[in-house]
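Q: Could you fold this chain for me?
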Amino acid sequence: MDLGNIIKSQEFLFNTAPFRECHASTIVESEEGSFWVSFFAGTNEGSKDVGIWMIKKKGNLWTHPKKVAWDREAACWNPVLFKDSEGKIYLFYKIGDSPESWSAAYTLSAYPYDGWSEPQYLPAGLLGPTKNKPIVMSNGEMICGSSVESYKAWACWAEVFDGVNWSKFGPIFYEGVNKGVIQPSVVELSSGKLRMFMRSTEKIGRICMADSLDYGRKWSRAKRTVLPNPNSGIDAVRLRSGIIILVYNDSKTSRTPLSLAASDDEGETWRKIFNLESGRGEFSYPSLIQASDNSVHVTYTWKRRRIKHMVLNAEGIEDCF
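A: Sure. Below is the predicted structure, expressed as structure tokens.
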């Protein structure tokens, strides 16, 4: 396989920064050829000084990381950037001492994208996207892959926003495993037909998936795919060609290697394409989008010290089939 036909570029987003650790990046294309990346950073995960940071790229230059959201009483977690059909950019994030106690907030930036609104807090019981980007479905509604990590049980949910009201559907869970699946990534296969890919715990050991045929109102139970998962975040996107690509840790026990797999049959079978990283250390929590020029952009945690950005050639991935 010619990786030179797949990997267009790779880079660290910063070399020095005013924080010790960073994690859980998210990427959005703000305007054609311009990108924003957000992540949480501070002393270490869960510390009260952990806030949401942002870095932007226009042309070939990345800005220096800037803190854009924080809370005086608790840590911030898992930002998610999303551009809606009207061009507004959402920054979702979570606040709390641990995932069991999260509350959810978001802030908005509208063109010309020169600032953020005051934080808005989702009603109790709603968390918005827990890790991965929402999508706008073919009926115009936004759907967020959400999940809840309570003390004894985990489950995924679908949260739908129609522009005025939020609705919550689920739970989606793995039969017989209380702490089973979280942090879903949702793709639309055809009008109203959705497939959700989920992180799983070691008791399951593989990425799971579930389906909806009615724009996310009713869901099947979660079932295992062939792809391993060591209780680590994933992300997926359906390319304009129809091929689904997914970035994940190809291991049952470790957050290395970080790999890309692709499917040309809606996620029923998978082909591993290559390892983005395979060294020692943690390479995890990918965020994945297809840009307006068809290139694929991936950001991910690099040893909790940096965020790495990789640009892939979609046609090179498609040529693997």
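A (continued): The domain at 3-318 is CATH 2.120.10.10 (Neuraminidase).
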